[in-house]
Amino acid sequence: MNLPSMVQIGKGNLSVQLFETLDNDLEAHELVKVTMQKTTSITVREAAIECASATGSEIIQIIGRTFTLYRRNPDKKTGILQ
């Protein structure tokens, strides 16, 4: 998947602001790639699960330190994964 990373998780780990950013990005783009820096204290899988749960999205893939989330926007005429 050749999608540029839209969100990075660093030392601050997961926060309400991060979830709000993800929520906005998912609403606008439906598909969001998230990259985790090596300074994070949680695993990529843990972060993906928490982010998906907080935003009502699905985990599409986890590769290395990157995961991709998807949430269909019902206001758009066509979803990416239809």
Protein described:
The protein has one domain: Translation Initiation Factor IF3 (2-Layer Sandwich). The longest helix has 14 residues. With 82 residues, the chain is an alpha+beta fold. 32% of the residues lie in helices and 24% in strands. The chain has 2 helices and 4 strands. The mean pLDDT is 87. Strands 1-2-4-3 form a 4-stranded mixed β-sheet. Strand 1, helix 1 and strand 2 form a beta-alpha-beta unit. The protein is globular.
**Looking across the biggest beta sheet, what order are the strands in?**
1-2-4-3
Give the termini separation: 16 Å
The CATH architecture classification is 2-Layer Sandwich
Q: Estimate the mean pLDDT confidence.
A: 87
Instruction: Find the count of extended strands (DSSP E, 2+ residues).
Output: 4
Instruction: Give the percentage of residues in beta strands.
Output: 15-25%
CATH class label: Alpha Beta
Number of helices: 2
Name the helix and strand elements from N-terminus to C-terminus, one letter apiece.
EHEHEE
What's the oligomerization state?
A: single chain
CATH topology: Translation Initiation Factor IF3
Name the features.
globular, alpha+beta, 82 residues, Translation Initiation Factor IF3
Quick structural overview:
The protein has 82 residues and is α+β, with helices and mostly antiparallel strands. It has helices at residues 16-29, 44-55; strands at 7-9, 31-36, 58-63, 66-70.
